[in-house]
Amino acid sequence: MTQKRIVILGSTGSIGVQALEIVAANTHHFRVVGISAGSGNLELLMKQAEEFGVPVVGTTATQAEAMRFALSDEVEVIDGADASAEIASLECDIVLNAINGSIGLAPTLAALKAGNTVALANKESLVAGGDLVMAYGADRIIPVDSEHSALYQCMLSGKRSEISQVILTASGGPFRDRTDLSDITVAEALAHPTWAMGPVVTVNSATLMNKGLEIIEAHYLFDLPYSQIQAVVHPQSVVHSMVEFIDGSTIAQLSPPNMKGPIGYALTHPHRHAKITPPMNWSASHTWTFAPIDAVRFPAISLAKHCGELGGGATAIFNAANEVAVEAFLGARLSFNKIFTIVEKTVNSLASGPLSVRDLDDVSRLEKDARDLAHRLLQESA
């Protein structure tokens, strides 16, 4: 049996670690030919390289020489700001992009330009540069976000022309039933009731900004107008998303609330393998609930759709401003309920200007303008 050659970008993060756990349980199916990560956990990065016999390792860290010394002479270490993009271009069967933030866009484009298929867990690639990414064709991208993986699978049940709408599910975060969002602490925001994720994604889930980003992502992945993309609160996080067809039938994808299911589906596609994730326990009782999202307390979804309908770089501005605001909240420099305010003011100020996105330079320019303004707004609100 031929092993599938995979590259994992962001290998030390939550998605990357779980992907390597899947590889470890299915060594006859996979061979890791490249990994990359930032400077946050070099010890784990080197351990992964040794454990999986990875021939090429990339890092943005300045300690690359120490890595070269510590690893076998047979391991090539690539360092610098473009390390992940270079590793994404390696000859392989699939690149899993699990990098956090819009810095993941360049590696996504590099992988596609090299002719590689991308298992995309970096939603910001589409939010910041959706037109650039989709120019390579949707057939080269397999979504890893649990919601988009679910939609991808549900859509196999009918023709695209027969879809009336898609429904993304949201856990609602830790504050779905809390009315006063003004005095929320960082510790409270990071205490997600269902998912174990990195701090930025966890805060985005608490503000439901994450769901706004996912709506933009769904628009690009499935070529759907925003009017056909909805979201509902589903606290149990078992139904990952649903597709409603024109005959009134709704197809849902269910699995336990962990990321191994969608990661494994993307890596094994177009097949399914055993030893990915335990199935649901159907001998036990289950109660699942669904509720509309309170747009007054959580206005991020409406703003995300507005930016998406503006088109061009409006969504890049939306995402960049949010990254600045979330970083400020995590650093105790901004209150939780002001995150949206910073994003909204930045979008309203900049989205009326030129928004064309022709290349990465255009995206970088728009993101820099958004971050600069967001930082000024933070200083004014201090």
From TrEMBL:
Domain called 1-deoxy-D-xylulose 5-phosphate reductoisomerase N-terminal: residue spans: 6-130
Catalysed conversion reaction: 2-C-methyl-D-erythritol 4-phosphate + NADP(+) = 1-deoxy-D-xylulose 5-phosphate + NADPH + H(+)
Keyword NADP: yes
GO BP terms: isopentenyl diphosphate biosynthetic process, methylerythritol 4-phosphate pathway involved in terpenoid biosynthetic process
All copies of domain DXP reductoisomerase C-terminal, residue ranges: 254-372
Pathway in which the depicted protein is active: Isoprenoid biosynthesis; isopentenyl diphosphate biosynthesis via DXP pathway; isopentenyl diphosphate from 1-deoxy-D-xylulose 5-phosphate: step 1/6
Domain 1-deoxy-D-xylulose 5-phosphate reductoisomerase C-terminal stretches: 141-222
HAMAP family in UniProt: DXP_reductoisom
Family of this protein: Belongs to the DXR family.
Protein name per the record: 1-deoxy-D-xylulose-5-phosphate reductoisomerase
